[in-house]
Design goal:
NE0471 N-terminal domain-like, 3-stranded antiparallel β-sheet, 3 helices, 6 strands
Length: 79
């Protein structure tokens, strides 16, 4: 007997930007999400320069800030 395993498509980010109170993430499928910086004290308290110094990890499955030693999972942002 074969069992079919359904794979959920990977959720990947393509861009990250900030405004005064929010972090915004554009997803590969065209969606854009915004989350309050209050949820992430390191990002909230960071300088503009530190916030802009990010890079994708896992081909866009995560976001890393070297200056802040902060990592965020893109799928977790959607939960």
């Amino acid at each position: 007997m074969r069992t079919s395993v359904s794979k959920t498509p990977e959720i990947l980010a393509t861009d990250v930007w900030f405004d005064a109170d929010m972090m915004h993430v554009r997803l590969m499928d065209g969606r854009e999400i915004g989350v309050p910086l209050e949820w992430f004290p390191r990002l909230r308290d960071a300088s503009v320069k530190q916030r802009k110094n990010w890079r994708f990890i896992g081909n866009g499955a995560g976001i890393h800030w070297d200056d802040l030693d902060e990592d965020l999972s893109v799928p977790a942002l959607l939960k």
